[in-house]
Design brief:
With 328 residues, the chain is α/β, with parallel strands linked by helices. Helix content is 45%, strand content 11%. GO terms for molecular function: (R,S)-4-hydroxy-2-oxoglutarate aldolase activity; 4-hydroxy-tetrahydrodipicolinate synthase activity.
């Protein structure tokens, strides 16, 4: 049985209540839809010197994020180094965030794995740990076989079984695979697939997805701060932006300007965010994101091996890209 496209737009529920409340809505369509609109930082995972997850530093970061008007947090996305964490660590990080997250904030947890079976199982565990929705990345190890037929079957099975809403995740820079347009449009019809995080940066594609799914109550999130304003222009409802880990208030201000139609002010702010965003994403990646977090008062620290720290030259480049735009 497919789940009805319903989810209570309420403050987060407790672990057991999450599953039972969702199951109670399976045959009803009167509850409010899950509204994804807003800005989310895909939070980093701090580690100790021995590369264990540092839950104390994580909680200290969460306390600071609670002061910023985010819609919620994305936990165990690409910037959380999820491929390097065990399943147990991934679930425990979500559980830790759930305990600290203020009422009314959305928790979206990455539950994607390479096999459909593993993704279904981890999705159920993330829901039990307190996730309000799951972010499911495209499986990619056998990318040559991940055509529309395979991906539709995969995401449909996950959504059929998921006790919480599913958000598709296309991040071709990391997976080498873009979720095909035809697959996205078909999957948007599933009552338990609520949206897409698109990190590819192709604005025409984002606009076309919005256009082709406009009758489906399907929501698109920009996957990077570098094209956030452009994504709003073509119908996106928000963004999951690595840069929000560092310049969270500024990203929320850009959202406000776009939503309220103050496009000239939005353009000026967007332009100042392009270079810093590129440096902590496609240029230098997670090590740069974590280094910049340290400069701005958050716990970033080292990545888990084999990711390496920045070189001195890379650190200088990172500082230039922030300082030349007035952020340092």
């Amino acid at each position: 049985m497919l789940c009805a496209r319903v989810w209570r737009a309420l403050s987060p529920l407790g672990r057991g209540a999450h599953l039972s409340a969702w199951r109670q809505t399976l045959n009803y369509s009167s509850a409010a839809r899950l509204d994804l609109s807003g800005i989310y930082p895909p939070i980093g995972t701090p580690f100790t010197d021995k590369e264990d997850v540092d839950y104390q530093k994580l909680e200290e970061n969460l306390q600071k994020y609670a002061q910023i008007p985010f819609k919620g947090l994305v936990v165990q996305g690409s910037n959380g180094e999820y491929p390097y964490l065990t399943e147990e660590e991934r679930v425990e990080v979500v559980r830790t965030v759930r305990r600290s997250l203020p009422a009314g904030k959305l928790l979206m947890a990455g539950s994607g794995c390479e096999s459909t079976r593993a993704t279904v199982q981890l999705t159920e565990k993330m829901a039990a740990a307190g996730a309000d929705a799951v972010l499911v990345v495209t499986p990619c190890f056998y990318k040559g076989k991940m055509d529309s037929r395979a991906l539709i079957q995969h995401f449909t099975k996950v959504a059929d079984c998921s006790p919480v809403p599913v958000v598709l995740y296309s991040v071709p820079a990391n997976t080498g695979l873009e979720l095909p347009l035809d697959a996205t449009v078909e999957l948007a019809q599933h009552p338990n697939i609520f949206g897409l995080k698109d990190s590819g940066g192709d604005i025409t594609r984002i606009g076309l997805i919005v256009h082709k799914t406009k009758t489906q109550d399907f929501q698109v999130l920009a996957g990077s701060a570098g094209f956030l304003m452009a994504a709003y222009c073509v119908g996106a409802v928000g963004g999951v932006c690595a840069l929000a880990n560092i310049l969270g208030r500024e990203l929320c201000e850009l959202e406000r300007l776009c939503v309220s139609g103050h496009w000239e002010e939005a353009r000026v702010l967007q332009q100042r965010l392009i270079e810093p965003n590129a440096t902590v994403t496609r240029k230098l990646g997670v090590p740069a994101l974590k280094q910049a977090m340290e400069w701005f008062g958050f716990h970033g620290g080292a990545c888990r091996s084999p990711l390496q720290p920045l070189t001195e030259a890379e650190t200088q480049q990172l500082r230039r890209d922030f300082s030349s735009n007035g952020w340092l």
